[in-house]
Amino acid sequence: MHFYTIFVHYMSFCEEIEADKDRGVMLKITAAVPTYNSEHFISRCLDSLVQQTMPNNEYEIICVDDCSQDGTVSILKKYSEQYSNITVIERKENSGGPGEPRNQAIRAANGEYIFFIDSDDYLGIEAFERMYQFAQQHDSDIVLGKMVGVNGRAVPQAIFKETKPEADLVKSPLVYSIGPTKLFKVSLLRKHDIYFPSNIQATEDQVFVMKAYIKADKISVLADYDYYYAVQHDGEHMTFAYVAPQNYYGAMKVIIDMICESRLSHTGKMKFMAKFINRHFDFSRTTDFTVTIESEQEQQIWMTELHRFVEQNIPQEIDKLVHSHTRLKLYFVRQNDLKGLKQFEADKENMTQFTSVENGHIIANYPSLMPYQLTENERIIDDRNKISHYVSKFQMKNDTFSLKGSVTHTALQPEQQAMQTLLGIWVHRERKTEKIISPVYSKDGEFEFLTKFTDLAVHEEDIGVWDFFIESEIDGYKKRARIGSSREPYPYSKHAKYIGNNGKYAFSARPYFTKTYGNLSVDIRKQEVLKVEFKNNDSDLTFVFPGSQLFFPKQSLLLLECNNQEFLIPIKNQISSVDGTVIQVDRNLVEQKFAPAHLKNMNIVLSINSYKTTLVPKKDVSVYFCSKNIEKKLWCFKIKKKVDLFIQSDQSKFYLTAR
């Protein structure tokens, strides 16, 4: 195609986009990019947007610059000259935050949906196409795409464990993902007047997203692709600036009021409010203001505003619904007890010095709590304890899989941990059935577990993935956790597996570590065929499984079937490595056991341990099998003649030839 023809097509394409805009044609997505002094990273952001697999006449990019003092605007204009679906809006006055630029993008949007992206972040190239298709399929008002942290940036993870067409506002961890980098239906925002509040700085994102969550009919989560890459960076905007506590807790009151006025039932409102308060105390300016603010006078100002916010807006019934440490903090906050709160924070840092196990629960005996004379039940902090683990050794041998390691409880003293009793528990991922194994060794938190693969694969319904948990019990208190993420390097290939038979079906069992969290699981599947090659060897018949690290039962047999006859030959050696697997049978034993009725060309079937685990040729083969003496009649004499038999392959089958 000549350059002139290409140019004409390109100009026609640009005219179509401009015509669509003039006619008010609805695009699929508007990408909203607020910018401020973004010259060092805006190109990467825009490149990820213009390279989307969605045709660029189906979406637009609106960049709103907030009076940048560097070369940001120049870069934006160059992109807008090159790509006709990019619009640049230059604000005349700096707004002090990304909220108002985002509002301008909402008002200017021609898309059915709008996606907010920060100028220093970027998208996976299939993000728009995947999210829009999913939103259309499920009539979603909001779509959250899986986020990835870059350069150590922390991003929400719990909400992205699995794809959900409809996430429950109360039951799901949506409240822990209240940044605006999501796909919103524009009609939802305009119908309910959902904009970023211009009178609030540093928390406008939370107010915007929480209102959208509450007003949305359906919120969807996509966890099947890396949609959004959030980059660790140093900020220059007002998000990082000082906010007066009166303004800050005023914004929190707005959110609490929205929850109270929502369509949720009273129970739903209380549970959702409790989730928000948990998040607020764990991930906000309230979390550690007694540390980040040096002036005790300023600390008291914050404490007084927090006290006022809680007493005037948070019902007492919420205290019973929040996490244990949030509940204990609320005792101090409701009493405006700054000194007690600071001591509590110090006690919490040295938690193991002040905990005990009583009646199946972990009890906090913090000195800071003594003036409040709380009952034992009011001091339960089971949810603050985690199992920390380390797996020091893995071993696959024949039909067994063993692991050694140690576990500790983060909230308990060493002498209490020495009392723990351990169990290993395999849980079928789909059916949730459990198979419990006792350790072959357990002392002071150290363990060794031995699993027989034939114990996992017993019945037909055992096919599937089994997840491994360790359960620790101390004086009636039980804690169960997945393990494997903290470990020594796995000594086997990621495809290493055991090949066995339980009398009902042949199966493979492959230990592996889950993609997201790196925990130990075993994948049980039915096994039908194994691809094999042969290696010439004078004394042994050698089978090679290149690239497959396989393990077989100790007393394994080679099964040979031909002319309706069956021969069982013990396997002499098994050698497994990351490069492949070799098994050997004694050729002399083959010659002794193999006695077919005749030796003309014949088909043979080779299997290991079961006729359900058949060997098939990986490539064409011709290898010496064994020698046999046969009798031939010559006139009136019988003579013996030695015949060499060779294994050859014909596509997917083996046969013997005599030479």
Characterise this structure.
Helices cover 26% and strands 34% of the residues. The chain has 659 residues and is α+β, with helices and mostly antiparallel strands. It folds into 4 domains: 20-239, Spore Coat Polysaccharide Biosynthesis Protein SpsA, Chain A (Alpha-Beta Complex); 247-345, no CATH class; 387-525, Immunoglobulin-like; 528-658, no CATH class. The strands form 6 sheets. Strands 24, 25, 27, 28, 29, 30, 31, 32, 33, 34 and 35 form an 11-stranded mixed β-sheet that branches. Helix 7 runs parallel beside helix 8. The chain is globular and about 120 Å long. The two termini are 63 Å apart.
At the fourth level of CATH, the homologous superfamily of the largest domain is Spore Coat Polysaccharide Biosynthesis Protein SpsA, Chain A
Number of DSSP helices?
16
Structural class: alpha+beta
Q: How many structurally independent domains?
A: 4
Question: Which CATH architecture of the largest domain?
Answer: Alpha-Beta Complex
In terms of quaternary structure, the protein is single chain
Q: Sum up the overall morphology in one term.
A: globular
CATH classification, class level of the largest domain: Alpha Beta
Largest sheet: 11 strands, mixed
Q: What proportion of the residues form beta strands (DSSP E)?
A: 25-35%
What is the straight-line distance between the termini? 63 Å
**Which stretches are low in confidence, meaning pLDDT under 50 for 5 or more residues running?**
1-14, 19-23, 235-240
Number of strands: 35
List keywords for this structure.
disordered N terminus; Spore Coat Polysaccharide Biosynthesis Protein SpsA, Chain A; 11-stranded mixed sheet; 4 domains; 16 helices; 659 residues; 35 strands; alpha+beta
